[in-house]
Amino acid sequence: MNPDKQIIITGLLERVNASPYLIVIDYTGLKVKQFSELRNRLFAVGASCIVAKNSYMRKVLTEAGLPDIGCELIGQTAFVTGESEVFAAAKAIKNFEKEFKKPEMRVGILGNAVLDTAKLKAIADIPSREAVLSQLLGTINEPATRIARVLKNKFNPDVDESTTEADAPTEAEAPAAEAPAAEAPGAEAPAAEAPAAEAPAAEAVTPAASPE
Question: Are residues 161 and 80 both part of a single domain?
Answer without folding.
Answer: no
